[in-house]
Amino acid sequence: MIRKTQIFIVILLLLNSCIAKFIPAVDEEKELLVVQGLIHDQPETDTIKLSRSLPLGKISDARPVSGCIVKISDDQGNIYTLKEYKAGTYITDPEIFKGVIGRFYTLKISTNTSNNNLNYESYPVEMKPVPPIDSIYFEKTVIEQAYENFAGVNGCQIYLNTHDPENVCRFYRWDFSETWELRLPFSVPNQTCWISERSQNINIKSTAAFNEARITRFPINYISNVTDRLKTKYSILANQYSLNEDEYNYWEKIQNVAVQVGGLYDIIPASIASNITCIDNPEEKVLGYFSVSAKSSKRIFIQDNFAGIIDPYSNCVTDTIQTDNPPGLNTTVWILLAHVCSFPCIPWYEATTHKECSDCTLRGTNVKPDFWIDDKY
User: Fold this and answer.
1) Is the dihedral of CA 254, 207, 240, 102 positive or negative?
2) Would residue 9 count as lying in a domain?
3) Is 50 exceeded by the pLDDT of residue 27?
4) Which of 100, 110, 183, 314 would suit a FRET pair with 49, their CA atoms being 20 to 30 Å apart?
5) 3-class secondary-structure state, position 248
6) Does a structural domain hold residue 252?
C-alpha cells in the first residue's frame, strides 16, 4: 500500500512539472496608443493621459508616452496647448482653459519624435449641457438579520436622482470620490486620518427610450460591512456628466467588457472603436476616448449606526510590557495604551508589533479635507 502511494505521488509531481503558461497566438496589434481624456465646463484642471498598450499575456502596467505635443481646439478657432505634468500626463491651466457648453472640441496629438513622428486627431465633440443632480441619499440594507443577542449586519446603498426639464441631456455618466474618517481606537499621536478613493466602476444611464429625461433611484455606490468606511463618518461626492450618443455607446461596450469573465472570445478593448484616429496611418487602431462633457456635482455625508461593520484593529495588542522604553520602540514595537498607577504598583503598557495600529497615516492623511464638516466628540 505504501509503495502504491509513493508511485501515485511521483506521478502527480511529474504531471505538475509539465504545466506551462499558454499564451495563444492571436492577431493583435502591439503597443497601440491609449488615450484617456476628459474636458469639462468647470474651473478645474483637465487631464489627458497617453500610454502604450501591452501585448496579450503582459501583466505590467501600460507605459506612459512622454514628450508629445497635445492640443485642444474648438470651433471658434481657439487652440490650447497642454503641459506635461508628469510622464504621459498632460494637463490644462484652468485660468486659461475651460470648456464652454455648445462648442465643439477636437483633441490633437503629435508624438513629437524625429523618427516616425505620428499625428492623431479626434472627431469634433460637442459639449452638451447637463442638469444639476437633484439629490443623493442612502438606505440601510440588511445583509444578515438580527436575532436574540446578535445585532445583525448592515450595508449601505447610495442612490442618485436627477432630471432634465428641458429634455436635452439624454445620456449620462457618473463617477465619484469617497472620503471616510478613520479614528484609531487608541490615544496615539496620529489617531485620526481621512482616506480618499475614486470610483472604479462604470456608471451610465440613458433616458432616450422614455418621454421624460428623469432618473430615479440610480444606484451610484454600495458599501458592504467588509470595509470600515461606515465606522465613523463617510462622504461621497458624485459627479454627473453629459454624453453624446456615440460616447454612451462606447462606455456601454467598455462596461460589457468589465462584467464579462475574460474569455478569449469575449469582446476585447481593441474591438471598441475610439473617436481618435491616426492622421498619418488611418489603419492604425487607437484605444480610448476623448470625452467632452458638462459636469455637475453633489456631496453628502453619512454618519449612522451600521451593525456588523468589521473592525480591522481588533487584534492590535500583541504584548504587554512594564517599561515605557522597550527594545525596538517605534521601530518594531509601538505603545498603544498606558496603564499608570501609584507606587508600589508598577505601570504597564499595551504594545503592538503592527505599526498601522499606532499610526493612521499608513492608510490615509492626518490633514483634514477642506470640505469636511467638524463634529463634536
Assistant:
1) positive
2) no
3) no
4) 100
5) helix
6) yes
Rounded Cα distance between 181 and 194, Å, is: 5
Q: Which residue has the cell 502596467?
A: 61
- Per the structure, the count of domains in the chain is 3
* Same structural domain, 145 and 124: no
Please indicate, yes or no, if residue 340 is contained in any of the structural domains: yes
Instruction: Examine the domain organization and report whether 207 and 273 are in the same domain.
Output: no
pLDDT tens-digit readout, 143-189: 999 999 999 999 999 999 999 999 999 999 999 999 999 999 999 99
CB 306 within 8 A of CB 225: yes
- 121, 258: one domain: yes
- Please say whether the beta carbons of 334 and 357 come within 8 A: yes
Residue-number span of the structural domain to which 156 is assigned: 133-243
Matching residue, cell 518594531: 332
Beta strand pairing call for 171-183 and 192-198 = antiparallel
Taking alpha carbons only, the member of 299, 321, 310 closest to residue 371 is: 299
Lowest mean pLDDT among 84-88, 127-131, 272-276, 338-342: 338-342
pLDDT in tens, 215-239: 999 999 999 999 999 999 999 999 9
Asked if residue 141 and residue 238 are part of one domain, the reply reads yes
Mean pLDDT across 326-355 = 89
Written as one letter, the residue type at 294 is: A
Region 112-131 average pLDDT: 93
Q: For residues 252 and 125, state if they share a domain.
A: yes
Query: What letter does residue 87 receive in the DSSP assignment?
Result: T
